[in-house]
Design brief:
Number of strands: 0
Structural class: mainly alpha
Number of domains: 1
Order of helices and strands: HHHH
Oligomer: single chain
Radius of gyration: 25 Å
Shape: elongated
Length: 81
């Protein structure tokens, strides 16, 4: 309600991204996430592998305590490669 209120925008006037986020956000939001079935399948397979390691279904990292089993398994895998 102040008639002399002043909004300073000149510092970002030449930078289109900084000047108008409302045009950028709707375009970026759909680009997030799993875009194809192949990427979804890869993420799901990786998640299932990590869960199996944690439960001890593989012979990787079984000597380590349960909380460190995944880290030990990846150390063993890195040594095998």
């Amino acid at each position: 309600m102040v008639p002399s209120a002043w909004h300073h925008i000149e510092c970002h006037a030449n930078n289109r991204i900084e000047a108008d986020h409302s045009q950028l956000k709707p375009r970026l939001r759909p680009m997030r996430g799993l875009r194809t079935d192949w990427t979804a399948q890869t993420i799901i397979a990786g998640h299932a592998f990590i869960q199996s390691l944690r439960c001890g279904h593989y012979e990787l990292g079984l000597d380590a305590p349960r909380g460190l089993r995944v880290a030990e398994a990846f150390t063993e895998l890195a040594g095998a490669i």
